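Supplementary material to the annual report.
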Amino acid sequence: MRLTLHSPMDMHLHLRDGDMLRTVAPLSARSFSAAIVMPNLVPPITTQQMVRSYKERIMEATKGLEFEPLMTLFFKPEYDYDFLAKVREDIAAIKLYPAGITTNSQDGVDNFSLEALAPTLEAMSELGIPLCVHGETNGFVMDREAEFVPIYERLAKRFANLKIIMEHITTKRAVEALLRYENLYATITLHHLYITLDDVIGGLMRPHLFCKPVAKRPEDRMALRKVAFMAHEKVMFGSDSAPHPRSAKEAPGCAAGVFTAPVALPALAQLFEAAGVLENLQKFVSDNAQSIYGITPPAKEVHLVKELWRVPERYGDVVPMFAGEELAWRVDEDTTA
Amino acid sequence: MRLTLHSPMDMHLHLRDGDMLRTVAPLSARSFSAAIVMPNLVPPITTQQMVRSYKERIMEATKGLEFEPLMTLFFKPEYDYDFLAKVREDIAAIKLYPAGITTNSQDGVDNFSLEALAPTLEAMSELGIPLCVHGETNGFVMDREAEFVPIYERLAKRFANLKIIMEHITTKRAVEALLRYENLYATITLHHLYITLDDVIGGLMRPHLFCKPVAKRPEDRMALRKVAFMAHEKVMFGSDSAPHPRSAKEAPGCAAGVFTAPVALPALAQLFEAAGVLENLQKFVSDNAQSIYGITPPAKEVHLVKELWRVPERYGDVVPMFAGEELAWRVDEDTTA
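Predicted assembly:
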């Protein structure tokens, strides 16, 4: 059995920089036609020059592959209309992190009052720049996303023309909010469709499945699966693939992030097929995102074949999800173009 | 400031065997007068001969120290009255594990029907042998203990003369059940008084704080602290100190267990002092357990002094809780006798 995906996109991707960028970017570029690239480098991407230079480094790392990096800025409440108008042509979205909530987010937002955010968000609204949000408070780990939902709701009401993307949602509560507000959209990761907290700490502890937001309860996963499997027009695939070297994962202070870029499409095909909704995968991995973002990615066909594929133990120094396990599908790179 | 504890006991302790036993047993024996020793070796302790031989190995490992290992059998529904009457003099309790629920529990109970358990539990009841229970189902990791509570309640009602000890309780739900049934008692660990799931996976992932049952929510910890701090007569200290070599903790499949034996009394003193209830520590670490078990441990004074103590990074190949951190109290070994 074969499946052809047209211009699949990863709407939430961490490509890092330097050697890690050179290791992981080609893996995304082989499977995807375009990807929204997160700006949480050290220091974060906050200027037009940084956006352009980072994009060049990504293009260099993916040379010869049909792949468009869709760049983002790291949200700052200082951004004004003139700056945003100038940088608009270089970016697809702006990513907002609450301060200190995940990897390299120290410089994020610590004041969510509408007044503090209004000038920048109104300018973004006028310029049609989507706002991507890492929606977690600094509360108890299982409650952080649910506690952030009222902030999503306030933002959605106050900035009705702003497209707000709830990144990597993990809870039933977030899905419910998503469906209530016209201008809320969401990305859903591969791993949150597959796992719950049980997979992370229910048996032995599995650092390679540890991520932020942490995987939640079975009923939360069910809510995510429901909207993903039907390819609800408000949701799109965003892997949040977040590579760390083994030394940072298999250590007493294990970094958060699951590396899924090279396994994402085969694992999604396996999951959607098992749910009897393989025909919805195209929308989930591309069409919905094109509508939500109003973009047209490079034309590219990615061919999947239903053949057992043993996932490599490592890509460079990074351990992928499903390392050493078998997936029912693989990307047929010979015919992908 | 000094604090003298009279015959402190650890009512839930893993001493392992072989080299690990020789590393960790003296650390418990320096701080405690006696300890309930868990039987989940490989294979589990299920015969009188195994109990006696394991006790000898522990005595050998703690030679020269005033310390009484209180032995336990690994619960089997096959144990009959005659066997139990014979082994009674060698054991302080019998420990029941649901099958496959934690380290080396494969041979545990998989049928909790009262009929299946009645012969053994009635015999234990007649012989006055307490039943220690690891109370978790195989459900979702955050719900396992709460889901087991109805089993505790059924057992408590049906075997009203059996002393049932809810081991290492972690939830508000368990505390509520404990208080409702006369013949339910509980041990509480050091780490569950200190941490919540936030400490394990809320920031970076910390394998050395990963244990079963996993640490729960802030309101659960509060419920544990409430009964521990008042030294409620139904609760007693049981560390569940569970050493694993570093290679088993700092790895992709991290084993469950927090090693607290050498830090337990100083850390408890710090916590009880901060809560303004230092005078209740004696009951929590000894008097309550003496009443519940009806035992008199060897007379031994353990002296704590309020002096900053930097916890070693390792004991042998085992990383303790608070490794490299400072505690406000230390055990004064020169005067402990």
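Residues 144-158 of chain B form the longest helix (15 residues).
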